[in-house]
Amino acid sequence: xxxxxxxxxxxxxxxxxxxxxxxxxxxxxxxxxxxxxxxxxxxxxxxxxxxxxxxxxxxxxxxxxxxxxxxxxxxxxxxxxxxxxxxxxxxxxxxxxxxxxxxxxxxxxxxxxxxxxxxxxxxxxxxxxxxxxxxxxxxxxxxxxxxxxxxxxxxxxxxxxxxxxxxxxxxxxxxxxxxxxxxxxxxxxxxxxxxxxxxxxxxxxxxxxxxxxxxxxxxxxxxxxxxxxxxxxxxxxxxxxxxxxxxxxxxxxxxxxxxxxxxxxxxxxxxxxxxxxxxxxxxxxxxxxxxxxxxxxxxxxxxxxxxxxxxxxxxxxxxxxxxxxxxxxxxxxxxxxxxxxxxxxxxxxxxxxxxxxxxxxxxxxxxxxxxxxxxxxxxxxxxxxxxxxxxxxxxxxxxxxxxxxxxxxxxxxxxxxxxxxxxxxxxxxxxxxxxxxxxxxxxxxxxxxxxxxxxxxxxxxxxxxxxxxxxxxxxxxxxxxxxxxxxxxxxxxxxxxxxxxxxxxxxxxxxxxxxxxxxxxxxxxxxxxxxxxxxxxxxxxxxxxxxxxxxxxxxxxxxxxxxxxxxxxxxxxxxxxxxxxxxxxxxxxxxxxxxxxxxxxxxxxxxxxxxxxxxxxxxxxxxxxxxxxxxxxxxxxxxxxxxxxxxxxxxxxxxxxxxxxxxxxxxxxxxxxxxxxxxxxxxxxxxxxxxxxxxxxxxxxxxxxxxxxxxxxxxxxxxxxxxxxxxxxxxxxxxxxxxxxxxxxxxxxxxxxxxxxxxxxxxxxxxxxxxxxxxxxxxxxxxxxxxxxxxxxxxxxxxxxxxxxxxxxxxxxxxxxxxxxxxxxxxxxxxxxxxxxxxxxxxxxxxxxxxxxxxxxxxxxxxxxxxxxxxxxxxxxxxxxxxxxxxxxxxxxxxxxxxx
Length: 900
Known about the structure:
By secondary structure, the protein is of the alpha+beta class. Helices cover about 30% and strands about 25% of the residues. Pfam families: GAF, HATPase_c_2, PAS_4, SpoIIE.
């Protein structure tokens, strides 16, 4: 069958017009039409639906027999052309049980009627041995004009499978919640589903023939077109390709994730590119939010680790900025109230935000020096645009945003200033967060965080993060402020509890050291004291309250006060410790009561629990103490110990020895009496009293520490080549502290060292007088002679008068022999002994009384007077200050007249 050339059936005029010499050449439309026609007639492999179903054809002649048989018919029906041509089609491939029906159908076809129906046929390739074909019969005529038929047959099973596949594909394509699209090989859309059409706001049919450039911005469209071409050419799928654009009618930028894959026909020929588009804008926003949250959490974690490592205010402010810049902002500053920095509790103007502030820290990732970023709120910024320097004191005006933030404790946002001037860095800022620093409902300062233009603007999460950062720093700053205040108070307390300066004592050289174990508060429970007693005697005390810190220091202060009070009563050392033990036991119970408690037990509260709350051991007031009284006249020292390490005695030219003082129980335990021991101390001997922090630590035992202390005192050479007893007392203290391990920080250390220098015999006058009236005159004579020998003529009259009063009282109210003693050291002391036990009592005599004014006169003319019990009676004494040549003492005549 020959083919006609194109245009052969066209009218002559039409054909001739295409080649007329008058033509100027084909138009653009003609060229496009010619190109399309050329493409249509190009040879190409079968495709489309015929790749999925095999269509067979054959023809019937006028006699109803097969006249033509195609190769597809042979494949479908299993008969070759030689087996089929000339045969009755019904007999040829229809099963016998269906042949009668088939014969009637063929007869109808040959009568000139079209027929379509299902025809069973023999098919040995199937398990049942037969199949069903859908046959379409079209009436035809042969070359002689006789009736014939052209038949087309399709296997029903293939057709039904195709219908099922199409229905499934339509369901997936139409009902998918994802945007589904199909591009042809020319990269134009062939089909989209409703979900895809809804995103871009057009009807589904309007997308046919559109390109990526009709839907997306140029840059994104070029990327998508290139990806389509790559998938079409290579056949490799592409997943999760990000595409950014705007949906029609929406100003918001959207983000899609696109996956592409190539489609093939049944013969394997590429027929286009299919794709799925998922709107991931929300997911992307959630990812960004999650990333922001993770970043903020990391920043807060870093802030927790880095802010507050120091109790210094400026250091804490710098730590805040080290965390914030550049991770959170581009530049930042911290202002603190000047009053808080100077230690004021309530700085003036704090309530209205106009108080003075000092800039304590500044940090920037975009400039080398301070800039006027949040300082637009500062007073006189217009007249004085210079930025605030670190350390500068300034104010914010009442109506400024910064002052408002300070007043209300609310975050304020300062927008960036517009302008192209390069002189002010503030014009480059996008915005500033002004954040008050609040701790314990108190505003302590102001933090400012700024971002430059081009950075992401501050959001609500950023504001919350800024508040959290400022709050953490504020708490640390307030803690530092409170620490400084408490530290100052603790130092005042500590200084008030320890002896001021270098203590002085008659017949003793004193040197002392105190090292707190707690470097943070510099206070503890160790103490020492030097107490002057009547008769130029001196009490040396060293004690240690168990526990640390301020509570131990307060307990120590109570015990130290009690010791001084008991010492002034001139009790024996053992009696002092017994009374002090009672006081210590009362400190740990409610109201100080401990009546009825068993020795060593804790008092119980009303609820039956330990009154000291056994869960808090700092409430149990236990202490150790050593108490010694030295008499420079007799060179004898009496010791009593309450669980304290023993004193160390170093005599000139001898080894250091631990004194065998009975240890006793600690104060507060109770139940056992204290013993005392009296030791004679030669002149030049060195006595060391200390607390256990000097000789005991976790690195060595107490015995090792005591041995090290003895060794330090033994090997310290003095100026004369002797041992420690001959060296400078201050040098001895320094040597002991430097030799021993005194930097362990585990306990306080107190060290009291005394070198014995007793009163010489020339400084003592001691006489015994009989209990007779003549002893009064004799006492006056002895006193005058002794004072004249000492060169104290200015004190003779007063001393005679007071000695006369005391001896007279001893004769009138005392018993037995009278003893008179005068002692000269830094003051003049007169003592009168008698055997009576009745203590003198000062009273105010009435105008009509003839007596009762003696002790009043003693009190008026002396620097101090008193009495104390002795084993054999009592002693009454008075003390006179030595004349210094500048002021005279009280006038005895005026004192006598003042009594009336």
